[in-house]
Amino acid sequence: MEVGPRDGLQNEATVVETTAKLAFIEGLADAGLSRIEITAFVNPRWIPPLADQAEVARGVRRRRGVRYAALVPNVKGYEAAAASGVDEVAIFLAVTDGHNQKNINCTTAEALLRYQEVAARAVGDGRPFRAYVSCAFGCPYEGAVAPARVVELAAKLIALGAYEISVGDTIGVGNPRQTALLVRALKQAVPLDRLALHLHDTRGTALANIAAALDEGVASFDSSAGGLGGCPYAPGAAGNVATEDLVYMLEGMGIATGVDLEKLARASLALEAALGRPLPSKVLAAMRGACT
Ligand code: HMG
Ligand code: MG
């Protein structure tokens, strides 16, 4: 799941023009990314960089075979996303009350109640939805998080009907051993083909953690073009693992991704120019000279 246009841009101080966002998303689809989270139907007062969510969702030129997704925090967001024609939505909450209070202004239990309603609407409409479990490797407000709590929440979200659970290292504190242990615990509640990882690369361990998860049989990973991103309510959080770095590693390991690295780099470089700062992907840095 490519999350650059949503997770990547939600934390940027520079406002990226809607037309540049549309070109970015279209470039990502053109590069072969088949699931793209394009925006979030959250309160624009909380996340100003994504205030153009409806324009983005309605304006994007659709490519056959690509699924366009959006984050929704409640029924209001779900209705706006559905009216804008997104193919799928994602609900999101953390394991900890501390992060949920800061991020979505409610406790974990309250969020689950809200999401029951969203899930019922999505199921009724036949629209697939995914669920994020944030702070699964540690919380900026509560510290260490026991895997059993992650498993318990993931099981509840599977019961709501989520087609995939994306387990997040929101603040990038995880290590490969922890990843393997967490995935082993999650297998009790989530079928492997419905488990994804969403790893912010704050401390440079995301690719190592993905390698450990691959060994445990996980086959779905979130990533962000150029390594864009962060979470405004997780202080100091860096972007997700860079899509370029992930594609390079997987292809080198003989795992086909269907992504054209040159085209991907061109999309990231165009966005980099719009942002006016270099993106952190290491593979993009290595390619920069070759692509411009
Ligand atoms: P609230 O203030 O508690 O909401 O915010 P409320 O229900 O009390 O309503 C207050 C106002 O918000 C009202 O407007 C509502 O209409 C409006 P007013 O009457 O004052 O003009 N409102 C909305 N507006 C637009 N879209 C909506 C919406 N809902 C209510 N959907 C809320 C609660 C959840 C809306 C707010 O806290 C919010 O938008 N939070 C989103 C924060 C966010 O996007 N954070 C970043 C997400 S990244 C993440 O969480 C991690 C992830 O990447 C995975 C990982 O890394 O682990 C997914
Ligand atoms: Mg994130």
Explain this structure.
Helix 3 (about 55-60) links the parallel strand 1 (about 35-40) and strand 2 (about 65-70). Strands 1-2-3-4-5-6-7 form a 7-stranded parallel sheet. The chain contains 12 helices and 7 strands. Helix content is about 45%, strand content about 15%. The protein is globular, with a radius of gyration of 17 Å. It is α/β, with parallel strands linked by helices and about 290 residues long. Helix 2 (about 20-30) packs antiparallel against helix 11 (about 260-275), helix 7 packs across helix 8 and helix 11 crosses helix 12 (about 280-290). About 50% of the residues are buried. It has a single domain (about 5-290), classed as Aldolase class I (TIM Barrel, Alpha-Beta Barrel), CATH 3.20.20. The structure holds 3-hydroxy-3-methylglutaryl-coenzyme A (HMG) and magnesium ion. The site of 3-hydroxy-3-methylglutaryl-coenzyme A (HMG) has 25 residues, from helix 4, helix 5 and strand 4.
Number of distinct helices: 12
> Quaternary state, please?
single chain
The mean pLDDT is: 96
User: Which bin fits the share of residues in helices?
Assistant: 40-55%
Number of strands: 7
Low-confidence stretches: none
CATH fold group? TIM Barrel
Strand/helix succession: HHEHEHEHHEHEHEHEHHH
Rg calc: 17 Å
Largest sheet: 7 strands, parallel
The CATH architecture can be named as Alpha-Beta Barrel
Large-scale geometry:
globular
Strand content: 5-15%
The fourth-level CATH homologous superfamily is Aldolase class I
